[in-house]
Amino acid sequence: MNKIGLGVAATFTAEPLGDALRFWLAELGIHGDAEEAVAFAPYDQVFPSLLDSGSVLGRARAAVVLVRAEDLVAEDPSAGQDGLDEAEAVATDLAAALRTSARGSGSPHVLVVCPPSPEHGSPEVHARLASRLVRAFEDDRAVSVLTSAEPYEPGPDEVHDAFADRTGNVPYTDRYFAALAAAAVRRLHAMTTPRPKVVAVDCDGTLWDGVVGEDGPDGVVIGPERLEIWRELARQVAAGRLLCLCSKNEEKDVREVFARHPELPVGLDDIAAMRVGWDAKSVSLRSVAAELGLGLDSFVFLDDSPVECAEVRAGCPEVLTLRLPADAAEAAAFLRHCWPLDLAAVTEADRERTRRYQEERQREQARGEMSLADFFATLDLRVIITPAGSEHEARAAQLAERTNQFNLSGTRRLDGDEKFVVDVRDRFGDYGVVGLTDARTEGDTLRVGAFLLSCRALGRGVEHRMLAHLGALARERGLARVALAFRETERNRPARDFLAALPATVEPYGEESAWYVLDAADAAAVVHTPGPAEERAAGPAGTTGSVEPAGPAGWASVERIATRLTGADVILDAMRAGRHMTEVAGASPVEAAVMRMWAELLDVAPASVSDGFFQLGGHSLRLVQFMARVRAEFGVELPFDTLYTTSFTVAEVAKAIEERQLADADDEELAGLLDELAGLSDEEIDALLDSENG
After folding, report:
1. Which of 425, 390, 422 lies closest to 406 in space, CA to CA?
2. What is the CA radius of gyration of the chain?
3. What are the residues whose beta carbons fall under 8 Å from the beta carbon of 421, sequence distance 6 or more?
4. Which InterPro entries match (predicted)?
């Protein structure tokens, strides 16, 4: 017996859901080949379909069941307690049937308790049925219950279609069917796809606006939109996910931000592991994985930087690496629509997971890791160093004031005779002016008093290019040496590490400062090579890897869904995007609109105004949907008896729409005249008659 991809049963006409379901299956890369992608049980046959192993649901790899309380509860909605009692009894029977079907088929089932109709449904009966079913499957991993189409729910005026419900028992609008399909497939995705156990997040530009190393713990901003990101992460912790920090910063600065914001919904006690330092983030993530005793394929990494995301994808292809939008509100929305972060069911053990890992961490030897040399080689880094002009004064002053981590001398002043600004860009975008040096000539030495670089460009070899530029400049001028001023501060360890790797001699001056002196030729020849951490990340000798591997679970698809397919309207637009229709010459505006509707409903575009609806594959359900669209767009109702004919063509239906519009307009005009006459006195009416007769 052939398996069906997705089986659907409903207490109402649910076939309009089919197009949206097939769209999502294609979006997720789930193709049925010879199998049926989506199949519907007979109309209003929910219980028989659940209890028959040979039914559509019994043969499905996954099942969606949609019910309305008013279709299941025979009691008059106004019957008070009797109606509520019947809702309880129906819920008990439905829960038993769902368990039987899920157990017998071995397939996940999603039950959607759909909203009642405004005309006939009882909100109280609906609420009782929904709450009873939610409780019945609270911790069930085979059956999951949805009581809304969140987060795709359209506005309340865009849910129900009274005309289509009355005409063909199609109770909802296209928008709401699209929302229901998205919510149902999303829940099935959570039930059937391995869920990540760890959410690792960047700090600067992700948890707060600003750079803590440059702005200080008091200078970063956590506004209302950014706070929503924290709330989303708090929900992840509450659901049992391990939350880790992975940031290029000084750890004490990051800890201080937490200390100064006790109102945050996530505290340091909620962090399972932290890697705040200057290693490549792929190295940090591997270290965290080893600490937690988890595979990298159970990690999601969130960062706003495209470069950092690409580096992690290259160094840790097992990790699902997602780039968050830079805008805080968009980033929060991204997290709400990030399907891999969903959990179908949460147990008490899940909720205790962070505490358990904090108390019982098991360390394993880190797996072999690929080198990052290829990544840096393909970054297409462009470092443009030019003399500073008047147009750079404001930015240069800002860099000197705010740069802490990579500021060799810790200076806030620029005293050199010459100043150079460093503009950086790569294949991901333009960083702008991120570096600054100043220099003066003393004898045979080019002395550099200021050498600083924003941490957002740190670790990519920009600092090496800056030094090589100074070395080349010294050689051009016949100078023998380059001397870099250094003074250790609380925050400039990255600068100290950079100097320590150079072939330099140290000449102390003053109590706390020193000159790091290099031969001009050595300075000019400095190049970036992976540091010790990156070298440790290299795999066994002879191994190689792709520099741009695709992330697991299709990170590009995850990002597309989380940024573009976030509401019913955009989902409908995406569904219709592939249905192109050639403009037919001579077609009237109404005919063109009819042809567009048919193309969207039938997946076949009419070639002329003489094409017939049923000749193009139309059937009674599509006819109801078309009539509902005509009513919504043109404000007229087309009766079945004028449409249900074999000669039902584009031209004829357009003519029927125009005639209906004209008739409705005449009726409105007549009603307006009668209203006007009703407001006149007898004398005014006599005067009008006299004027007409005269």
Report:
1. 422
2. 34
3. 385, 386, 387, 388, 392, 395, 396, 433, 435, 436
4. ACP-like_sf, FkbH_domain, HAD-like_sf, HAD_sf, HAD_SF_ppase_IIIC, PP-bd_ACP, SGNH_hydro_sf
In terms of Cα–Cα distance, which of 441, 62, 560, 500 is closest to 278? 500
Single-letter amino acid, residue 219: G
Q: Find out whether 453 and 512 touch, Cβ atoms under 8 Å.
A: no
319 CB-near residues (< 8 Å, 6+ apart): 200, 285, 296, 297, 299, 300, 301, 312, 313, 551, 552
Q: Write out the H or E segment, with its range, that includes residue 421.
A: strand 418-426
Is residue 132 scored above 60 in pLDDT? Answer: yes
CA 422 – CA 413 distance, rounded (Å): 17
Q: In angstroms, how far is the first alpha carbon of the chain from the final one?
A: 87
Please give the torsion angle defined by the CA atoms of residues 396, 402, 408 and 410, in that order, rounded to the nearest 10 degrees: 110
- Contact criterion met (CB below 8 Å) for 372 and 534: yes
Give the single-character DSSP code of 540: S
Cα of 556 vs its chain's centroid, Å: 10
Sheet of strand 109-113: strand arrangement: 38-40, 4-10, 60-67, 109-113, 143-146
The neighbour count for residue 423, using CB atoms within 10 Å, is 16
Omega within 30 of 0 (cis) for the link into 387: no
Closest CA to 213 of 492, 431, 423: 492
Structure tokens at 392: 């750079």
CB 629 within 8 A of CB 167: no
Contact 425, 431 (CB under 8 A): yes
Q: List CB contacts of 228: < 8 A, sequence separation 6 or more.
A: 328, 329, 332
| Rounded Cα gap, residues 244 and 207, in angstroms | 12
pLDDT (tens digit per residue) in 608-642: 777 877 777 777 777 777 777 777 777 777 776 66
Please answer whether residues 351 and 584 qualify as being in contact, where contact means their C-beta atoms are separated by less than 8 angstroms: no
Q: What is the per-residue pLDDT across 633-675, written as a single tens digit (0 to 9) for each?
A: 777 777 766 666 666 787 888 888 777 777 766 555 555 555 6
Q: Which residues pair with 145 in a beta bridge?
A: 111
Dihedral sign for Cα atoms in the order 145, 621, 657, 669: negative
**Which residues 6+ apart lie within 8 Å of 681 measured at CB?**
none
Task: Look up residue 477 and give its two tokens.
Answer: 């001028």
Give Cα 675 to chain centroid, integer Å: 55
E strand or H helix that includes residue 632: helix 620-634
Report the alpha-carbon distance of residue 647 to residue 651 in Å, rounded.
Answer: 10
What's the whole-model pTM score?
0.72
- Taking the C-alpha atoms of residue 366 and residue 364, their distance in angstroms, rounded to an integer, is 6
Hey, how many other C-beta atoms are within 10 angstroms of the C-beta on 479?
18
Strands 198-201 and 505-509: unpaired
Taking alpha carbons only, the member of 369, 189, 373, 377 closest to residue 285 is: 369
Q: Look at strands 299-303 and 320-323 and give their pairing.
A: parallel
322 vs 319: CA distance, rounded Å: 9
Residue 91 has pLDDT above 70, yes or no: yes
In terms of Cβ atoms closer than 10 Å to its own Cβ (0-12, 13-18, 19+), residue 390 is exposed
Nearest residue to 523 (alpha-carbon basis) of 593, 445, 599:
445
**Cα dihedral 118/121/123/126 (nearest 10):** -140
